[in-house]
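Justification of resources, computational component.

The compute hours requested in this renewal are based largely on the per-chain cost of generating structure records like the one below. Each record pairs the submitted sequence with a full structure-token output. That output is archived, and it is also reused by downstream analysis tasks.
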Amino acid sequence: MSRARADEEEYWHSSKFRAFTFDDEDDELSQLKESKRAVNSLRDIVDDDDDDDDLERVSWSGEPVGSISWSIKETASSSTSSLEGQDSSLQKGSSSYAAFPKQVSSYSLSSLFKGRNRLPSFQSLSNALSDTGVKNYAPELRRPKAEYKDYSSDWSPKDTVKRMQRGKVCSLERFRSLQDKLVLLDEAVAGHDGNVITAVLIFLKRTLRREILFRELEVRQVALCHLIHFLKETGEQKLLLDLLRFLDRTEEVALSQYREHLNVQDVEKRREFLKGCIGLPFSAEDTSHIQDHYTLLERQIIIEANDRHLETAGQSEIFRKYPRKASILNMPLVTTLFYSCFYHYTEAEGMFSSPTNLKKTFKIPDKQYVLTALAARAKLRAWDDVDALLTTKNWLGYTKKKAPIGFHRVVEILQRNNAPVQVLQEYVRLVEDVETRLNLATKYKCHDVVIETYRDLKDRIQLTAYKCKVERGSAEEQNINSILNNTQIRWKN
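The structure output for this chain reads:
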């Protein structure tokens, strides 16, 4: 009794916590030991399930699991069971259920808690569950009926078109008769989806003879237009020409053949090809264009050969000062005219490279010729040629400036090529519209033109305001002062 009382007093007076001491290292060491002791106690709780590890495991036949005899019998039984059908294995419930625990017999509860297998020679739990033998016992999920129908391609033409519009894959091979194919094409056209129509046309092009395909498309203009566009995009020139000939579209046949010249890279062969295109059944207007194209290429070949020789020999000053950056072959007519105005402006009209010869041969309008020649001569800063280009003489011998493109555009082209102010002022004065003339003169700082215009308008206020925009003591300021002091001018304000 006294001993029990003493134990009770010791329990109530004892504590797990100690008072602060300076022995920190000993205190930490003791705490570490206590935590280790607690972990070991938890491990002992888990290892309680491993008490049977010392016991020997036996199979249903009474032999130790893992022994040599057990391994031989297990291998023989697994090979025998694999040869049997699934139905027989399900009927023999006792044998099938007896084979199932063999896969998991090597696992203990403690090994599952510890996250490791008891015997490393056996499969892991996930591998055992994913084994083919175990999969046979899981019921197979039935696919939706829609998928079975999709695999069998049991679709009507209308349903097939709808599925194609939704982007689903559909086999068109089941449509074998001509009637089914035509119904499919009509449904595609009724769906107003160009991609579906093109896909069906590709299928028909592959499975029908050309004569039958052309005959059926002749009465289906929407599908016919889609096929023609598809053949042009894919470059199937032979089939396209056959289709156009069948439809008796002679001009389209000629244009398609003419378009083939773009694929001919050699210049001489392209010239011969264009020469052969002249006799094709074009309209009258198109025939003249084909003739001009052939003539232009022929001129370009002559000019290119001559200029290459001059440039290589160094005999021409303009080629030495301004070397050519590209060949003139296969260039448009306007580019060829600019080239001639740049390098051959002063040549006689009888020369093939003369600008006037090109203008006369290809009937270039005056406006186009002046615009091109002005740009070429202004780029060379040949202001005398610009003046001569814009100067005309009447039948009495009087000369005057004339610009078919308008003098406001002449001023813009000259300013873009850094023309001096004196040259700009000469053509700004020729702008008829007063407001446009003042805007251009103010923009390009043609002070004399601005002062003269305000004087002619008798606008004293604007002239006085413009006096602040010129330099002090300059000739322009003196000119403004003299105009303002002129008593003979009757000012409007």
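The chain has a mean pLDDT of 79. The CA atoms of residues 256 and 411 lie 44 Å apart.
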